[in-house]
Specification:
The chain contains 10 helices and 4 strands; from the N terminus they run βαβαβαβααααααα. The chain is of the alpha/beta class and 221 residues long. The protein folds into 2 domains: 140 residues, no CATH class; 67 residues, no CATH class. The chain has a 4-stranded parallel beta sheet, with helices on both faces. Helix 1 links the parallel strand 1 and strand 2. The longest helix is centred in the N-terminal third of the chain and has 15 residues.
């Protein structure tokens, strides 16, 4: 099985570059494509922004149709799955999945296998799903705050992680602007994910992602 994975930012790619081999082993292949933000699902099947702006949801019609044309050719027998990974943020999960499904169904051609894996509330929830990994990466982390975190809760997830590991917390980090936040998120991904035990991660949305990949890769759950 080959996986084409679409993620909304660089920190997500850095995390998945480390996590994917832990989940699917070395008998499968993957590419991870990072974008510069999540954006919005476009109305209809027209891409709503220029490709070079690299906004993930805005580009989905073009991406899905492109994957459909590329991988559905009769001569291509190697199974390929397209996996969309993005944050839920403050959206309704049920409506978001319905809207994504409707967009996919309107694409012609569409990939044979497409799955939506949504991090709830944000990608940092997948890091916080293994608190021992956070502690290993950041020995001076605020343990009390981490222990009070409820997995996949709508609580300002990246801010929670920042408050636990960043000097001055989320307020200090936010004061430096969005570029500094993005850079710090990438550091979290690089430092924490090597310690993550994918079998013991208790984030429900991460477990769903892992189970989707296991099922497609033929790995027993």
């Amino acid at each position: 099985m080959h996986f084409e994975i679409l993620v909304e930012d660089l920190s997500g790619k850095k995390a998945l570059d480390i996590l994917l081999p832990k989940i699917i082993g070395n008998k499968h292949t993957f590419n991870i494509h990072s974008y510069k933000g999540c954006g919005r699902i476009p109305k209809g099947i027209s891409t709503s922004s220029e490709a070079n702006k690299r906004i993930l949801l805005d580009q989905l019609p073009r991406l899905f149709c492109g994957y459909g044309r590329t991988y559905n050719a009769n001569h291509n027998t190697y199974p390929v799955a397209v996996i969309l990974v993005c944050d839920l943020d403050n959206k309704s999960l049920e409506k978001f999945l319905l809207d994504l499904g409707a967009l996919l169904n309107n694409c012609n051609p569409q990939p044979r296998i497409t799955k939506f894996c949504i991090a709830i509330e944000e990608g940092e929830a997948w890091l916080l799903g293994d608190l021992q990994a956070v502690r290993s990466a950041y020995p001076k982390a605020n343990i009390k705050l981490l222990d009070n975190y409820v997995n996949d809760s709508i609580c300002g997830t990246w801010e929670t992680l920042a408050n636990a590991v960043y000097p001055g917390g989320a307020i200090a980090l936010s004061s430096k602007g969005w570029q500094a936040i993005g850079a710090e998120k990438s550091q979290w991904a690089e430092k924490i994910t090597p310690h993550v035990n994918v079998e013991k991660n208790v984030s429900p949305s991460f477990k769903y992602f892992k189970d989707v990949l296991h099922k497609l890769a033929g790995i027993e759950l």
